[in-house]
Amino acid sequence: MSTAAPRPRIEPVIVSDEFTVVGLYHSIHGEEQNYQSEAALEDDLIKQLCAQAYEYADIHDRDGLEANLRVQLEALNDYRFSDEEWKRFYRHSIVEAPSADGNPVIAKARRIQEDHVQVLTRDDGTPKNISLIDKTNIHRNNVQVIHQYAVDTGLRLNRYDVTVLVNGLPLVHIELKRRGEDLRQAFNQIDRYQRDSFHAGDGLFGYVQIFVISNGAHTKYYSNTVRLAHIRENVGGRREVAAANTHSYEFTSWWTDAANNQIPDLADFAATFLAKRTILAILTRYCVLNTSGQLLVMRPYQIAATEAILQRIKTSTMNRQTGSVTAGGYIWHTTGSGKTLTSFKTAKLAAGMEGVDKVLFVVDRKDLDHQTIREYNAYAEGTVSANQSTRQLAQQIDDQSVPIIVTTIQKLATFVKSHHGHAIYSGHVVLVFDECHRSQFGDMHTDITRAFRNYHLFGFTGTPIFAENASSSGKANLRTTQQAFGDQLHSYTIVDAIRDKTVLPFRVDYLNSFRVRDGIDNHDVEGIDTDSAYMNPKRITAVVSYILEHFDQKTKRHASFQYKKRRVSGFNSLFATSSIKAARAYYQEFKRQQADLPEARRLSVGIIYSYAPNADAPGTGLLSEETMDPSALSQDDRAFLDDAIADYNQRFGTNFGTDASGFEGYYESLSKALTDKRIDLVIVVDMFLTGFDSKSLNTLWVDKNLRAHGLIQAFSRTNRILNSVKTYGNVVCFRNLEEATNDAIALFGNKEARGQVLLRPYGEYLSNYLETIDQLRLDFPLPIGSIASEKEQKRFIVLMGQMLRLRNILTSFDDFETDDPVPSRDLEDYRSVYLDLYHEARERVKAEKEPIADDLVFEMELVKQVDINVDYVLMLVEHHRGEKGDGEDREIPVDIVRALASSPTLRGKRDLIEEFYRRVSLDGDVPTEFEAFIAARRESELAAIIEAERLREGAREFAYESLREGYVSDEGTGLSSILPPMRRFGAGAGREAVRIRVLEALRSWVERFTGLGRV
């Protein structure tokens, strides 16, 4: 075999620091009207890639691929193989890729991602390092494009559409279908290649890291090993491989710009994703091969967020801004969108930056600490170090061989207080806060940022705190995420995630769990003791009965699938309760109602709760933090938990208790039982409602008041993507949470939500404060005896509350320290009286509430079921963002329509809805009028197609049958039978063009009118 001399390379003097994900992309797609065959689509793609500095290689068989690989590796490594050296290297370092689990695809992925420098034994016996890919200077890698590569397996000849070679190895494969074809056909084609021929010809196509599928209009990408692992996990045997396609297709991804706008057109996709620098950056920097052998290709929003943080570190260091909020920022990525992978890659890349001494990943609870360590080490074993004590944290901080540390904010705050003047405070440190909507509050945050001087502070959150939902308590300059962490560097909202199918939509059932005999429902009514109503034994019995009756339906127990190497039926669930008292009552009721059921029909029910020392202030919406040490529980609550854990021990053969280590072991075991789908339902108060991820969980039963952050966090336990059986996250509310749900979805779906609380001038606050103090001293001079009048008590409480709120804001201004006119002793005296009266008043109100248990009828009635999809979310966002005055009510429907127009499910229908709203009568029945309007438009538009294309008799019936099916098939004789007559000779190409044009017209008509009225 002949070998060419290595080509000279031009090394770049300066490589620009471009972003991998383009900021805001403007389409280059033209308004082409002519029919485009699959071959033409392929030719256009190759021309475009060549224009983007790809090298075209005329390679169509195994011999050509191997010869080119040799030339490319010689050029990359500036070394010329002898024929014998090449034979040895090719066989041992390219073709043979041993794997622990025997899967060559995983082995080859590991070779590219982790073991890309192979050792050649030269003819003289000396070793020589040979790089397969240069991950440090990515521009040194040569990128080529080939097409119509042929593999003859003996059974059939396979021809692959387009393949991207990097240094001669096929690392990206693109499968095309002509415009108008279903994108899944390209996906299925790759699946057939994987089974039939990728292993042939020395298995070089096993090196493909990323697959791209496109029909011209829609283009998606996905990794090789994730698809294979998903098939193995969710399919029982080889005969069922075809059935896995619908499952694994859900793990394909759209490419977007940094503003999360999808880039579906092939030409646009090629200009961005397949740009040389971008695809090389993705292959070398933004793929993660986890310990399970899964190759995770980061999504564009994850890459954009990572690069935004790295860029902020570079620029703020260069501008000497470290140690300030300007040097950091926060990432708003909605719950369930892969925040851990983003933070892992960010921490790893930041730790490798020149000059960075340490990366501290800070979590705010021990249970999140456990999960973060587990997830980080799933990406790369031993990447991060955990710590069980502040002393161990100090040792890791001192150890230069430990670049990334995961710790809790509590341990870090303790370290700061006990290690004054430590050298790390002046070191170049990157602090990354997980769930930063929690950890930004309180003195710990202030203590940490005061101690460190040369730091960057970054936060990750799925539910930021904005000005609109900030608490009025706490430090006035630390009330929002932006105030605590700086600029929002990237956002990926729940709207984006549901649209991209990164997470599942929610389906929420609102149920009335009781009604008063005179008709009042379960809304809280002033003066009525609804707390006792919620805890009434009859209601608890009714709720448990409802869950038992509907559990199989909600968790889809009728459907079975392969999950974690075993066959399971349906999913499992969490039950969120309002208090430990409620959790206990429900646990006992489940035991009572299931006592006489046969074992096979019983649900396995667990329970977990602990003491919450610092329940969050009302209004924040945050869930309280339960400790991992239940020793502070009341004796009765702890004894009950011991009994419940004993039930768990008996079922699972474990030996846990409520001592500190025993409870921690129980927490770990219970979370694993949930994740492994070995328990059906777990009753919680707040645990597992934040930070806990389980793909097998699809239902949340809710009997507690949730709002804002807590609501989104709790709901999001249910919407992790698993397979085609799990189509949405179920939430069943036994309380009226509809308004709270709408508000939360609107807030966290709105990219424009403000993150800065605008404070008024200091003098204005001080003036109001002084006026309040003067009024307080005048009406209630010290010392204060008893305030006998209830009216005067209320007045004192109002004045004190106003004074304390103003004082809290003023303490954030430096000048207040010298301007405060209230001596500390007077303040303490006033506060003592205030607290006494405040608690007395609360107890009095509580005692005066009218018990209504005797007037209640406990029953379950489905009030409303809402599918929270993109349409619903956007409607709510628009509604809350731009509410209209009374004089503009007519504009509201148009605003809703504009929001719905951006939904993929309603594309092409916007003009219909807008026209209907312009024509609808003021006093008619809207649904009836809408159905009549749609029927008329549907018929007239179909008639226009039939006339324009001169379709034969039967076209109308064919079209309406297609509409009922939801798809226009081009198989069989149905479509051909309605095409217009054409000349017998010389009409082949013309007839095909007509067929495509008619097919596209009918498919557009079906898509336009699907879901709009009865057919």
Shape: globular
Second CATH tier, the architecture of the largest domain: Alpha-Beta Complex
Structural class: alpha/beta
Tell me the helix content: 40-55%
By CATH reckoning, the class of the largest domain would read Alpha Beta
DSSP helix count? 35
Proportion of residues in extended strands: 5-15%
Rg from Cα: 32 Å
Largest sheet: 7 strands, mixed
- Give the count of structural domains: 5
> How many beta-strand runs?
25
pLDDT average, as an integer?
A: 79
With strands numbered from the N-terminus, the spatial order across the biggest sheet is: 21-22-20-23-24-17-25
What is the end-to-end distance?
67 Å
Poorly predicted runs are 1-16, 229-247, 519-528, 876-904
CATH topology of the largest domain: tt1808, chain A
Q: What would your notes on this structure say?
A:
The protein is α/β, with parallel strands linked by helices and 1015 residues long. The chain folds into 5 domains: 260 residues, tt1808, chain A (Alpha-Beta Complex); 199 residues, P-loop containing nucleotide triphosphate hydrolases (Rossmann fold, 3-Layer(aba) Sandwich); 129 residues, Methane Monooxygenase Hydroxylase, Chain G, domain 1, CATH 1.20.58.910; 212 residues, Rossmann fold (3-Layer(aba) Sandwich), CATH 3.40.50; 102 residues, no CATH class. Helix content is 43%, strand content 14%. The chain has 35 helices and 25 strands. The strands form 6 sheets. The chain has a 7-stranded mixed beta sheet, sandwiched between helices. Strand 2 and strand 3 form a beta hairpin. Helix 10 packs parallel to helix 11, helix 13 packs across helix 14 and helix 25 packs across helix 30. The longest helix is centred in the C-terminal third of the chain and has 25 residues. The N terminus is likely disordered.
